[in-house]
Amino acid sequence: MVNGDVNAWKFLVAQYLDNKISEADLKEMLRKAGHEEDMEVLSAVLKAHWEEAKNVEDKSGIDWDEKFATMMVTAPGTPVKKNIRRIPGIAVAACITLLIAISGYWPLFKKTPAPPVTASVTKQFDIAPGTVGGVLILANGKQIKLDSAGNGLLAVQGQTKITNRQGRITYNTADKNNEQLLYNTITTPRSKQFQLVLADGSSVWLNAASSVRFPTAFTGDVRRVEITGEAYFEVAKATRNGKKIPFVVHANGMDVQVLGTHFNVSAYPDEHTIKTTLLEGSVLVSKGNAKQLLKPGEQAQLDQEGNLSLYKDIDTEGVMAWRNGYFSFDQADLPGVMRQIARWYDVDIVYEGNIANRRFGGEISRNTNVSQVLKILEESKIHFRIEDKKIVVLP
């Protein structure tokens, strides 16, 4: 038994079960299994995962040990042996499938077209995906519905012109130094997202059920905005009298300070943590006396107790999935998955009976009707019923 073979199989199986395996590694795993390479090693690796996974609470009544042993026989029809020496390549997929089933983790499809819709999830209702839209609230309280606002000038506040160009709001100020300090707010309800360009040239993308409050012009020594929900920022660099002007995002008691950078802040009130993820540049995240400086690919998480933690090697593509048109789940539990669906499709979620504790990984397009998304989730043996603007999760 070569140590390199053990490490190779451990890596491949772990990557697969964590839903992080690359296309190249997946092909290598299937090739090795198909040629029955190092089967004794693979048997030991799978057995170790099996012993760990089967300890998870399971109410199915299935004898998982018997199923594992049955699949580990040399060939169909061969009696089960106590001392397993080799595992046929054809059994690898079945073993991994059972590992997934007992551990409660279900990989989803990765940006693949949704399967045909069936009556089990649609009944007589279906819900279209979210679209571009929101509400602009001016400093005087006037509200402009952005869904139906045409291209061109929307409003004038002081020396600032507010313009809509194909679903993107832009603020242009003639004299920033003498502009009156006025604040506007853009809100996106559930099922809507929107983009705006601030007076300093910084761009903000709002996810569904979010808001951003901002000045029509930045006149002081700090550029400050406030958000709820989730927003992605591309901050423009700005100076005054030769000094750089910091840009600060305030989100539910936490501050993110930058000079010029790209980052995402998720601060939904119904989530357990506030997450700030850096894509480019650097940011300083602070909550009271706690501070954390981020580098690209890092994420700061603020929990409900006020603890600030740093996480490295973050999947930034997954974080930005919402802006790029798809859901991305990484070991997400079912309530977390359904909260994202509720925001994007503007539906209420109801749980009926005891729902299995499952975790999900993968990506699903946000540009499909809700019934198609639910059909993909049904592959993990979670079932649903749609009733008007309500999704009932069934046991």
- Catalogue the unreliable spans: 70-90, 110-120
- Binned, the helix content reads 10-25%
Q: What is the annotated CATH architecture of the largest domain?
A: Sandwich
CATH class descriptor of the largest domain? Mainly Beta
Cα distance spanning the termini: 45 Å
CATH topology of the largest domain: the name is: Jelly Rolls
Shape: globular
Structural domain tally: 3
Radius of gyration: 26 Å
Note the main sheet. 19 strands, mixed
Look at the helices and sheets and give the structural class.
Answer: alpha+beta
Averaged pLDDT: 79
What is the total tally of β strands? 27
Tally of DSSP helical segments: 9
Q: What is the beta-strand fraction?
A: 35-45%
Structure description:
The protein is an alpha+beta fold and 395 residues long. The protein has three domains: 3-103; 109-127 and 325-394, 3-Layer(bab) Sandwich (Phage tail protein beta-alpha-beta fold); 131-318, Jelly Rolls. Helix content is 23%, strand content 36%. The chain has nine helices and 27 strands. It has helices at 3-17, 23-34, 39-53, 64-71, 92-103, 119-122, 316-319, 334-345, 370-378, and strands at 105-110, 131-132, 135-137, 143-145, 152-157, 160-164, 168-173, 183-188, 192-197, 203-206, 210-215, 223-234, 239-240, 243-244, 247-251, 254-258, 262-267, 273-280, 283-287, 290-294, 299-303, 308-311, 326-333, 348-351, 359-365, 383-387, 390-394. The strands form four sheets. The protein has a 19-stranded mixed β-sheet that branches. The protein has a three-stranded mixed β-sheet with strand order 1-25-23. α1 (3-17) packs across α2, α1 (3-17) crosses α3 and α3 (39-53) runs parallel beside α5. It is globular. It starts with a helix and ends with a strand. Residues 70-90 and 110-120 have low confidence and may be disordered. InterPro entries: FecR, FecR_C, Ferrdict_sens_TM. Keywords: Membrane, Transmembrane, Transmembrane helix.
